[in-house]
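Fold it.
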Amino acid sequence: MNKNQMNFCFLGSSDFSIFVLKELIKKFRPNLVITLPAKAQGRGLLIKPNQAYSFCLKEKLNVIELKLWQQIKNLTFDFGLIAGFGKIIPANVLANQSIFKRGLLNLHPSLLPLFRGADPIRQTILNGEKISGATLIELDQLVDHGPIVAQTRLDLDQTETLSELTQTLGRLSGQLFNQTIELWLAQQLEPKPQDEAKATWTKKVSKTDGRLNLDENYDQWQRKIRALNPWPGAFIQIKVRGEEKLLKIYQIEKINYLDLKPELKNFTPAKFFQHRNELGLKIATDFILIKELQIEGKKRMGAKEFLNGYKIENLSLII
């Protein structure tokens, strides 16, 4: 089956959607891409289309911004494919076979029934998982609940950032679709119900989830830093020159205890120190270097540049 023989609609609005599409169009081009409307972004609150919409324009894919479901009521597709759309499909649309003859499929970046919900990639990193994957399901009226059409696994090295894993799982998901869709259409695959006893859920991240706590160890800080950048960011609060400031942390490194100066080994948590001309901090049972950071109101910078402008004795952690 070539790119022009399959009549389907793609629904996606996220960065994950873009990476899925990049793989998809190597083999199949959707007849229409549906994405969410442009919204205000940035400090100036300028109205900008999401990146999926911009990608479609660049690739000359037919694309619309969905404001009302009535926009597609007179269209007909063999099926619809969802990947990071960001909006629940109403029951009346899901059941409308005059729009989607074979229903809707969903590509989800986890090994369902693990990590159902809106933020599976972030949760995978926060949990310190060693294995992830992609799942293609038939959509039903419950969230990420439908029967599994196909699934593929991915070994993680546990250094992946949110953006890196989003790209990897997006491409993996697109490849999974390309490998299985013709079999599904030919009814040569038998979808299998998910094991409800194994189902887990992701939670919506808030700004406060980015706070790094002193009772957390190096591994926990590392996972938060990788999972929560660029938003809400991983941060601590410090007092510098008498002012309270937010300090975002982008990169840390664990210090070998044997490399510490003797006077540092008995440090209690929450104290900053200088180690090899870099910014050190004691947390829980670990000593760390803060390698890359951004103090409130300033640009992102390395620790050495930071220490050129701020003295250790003028820094204290707000607990």
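The first strand starts at residue 8 and ends at 11.
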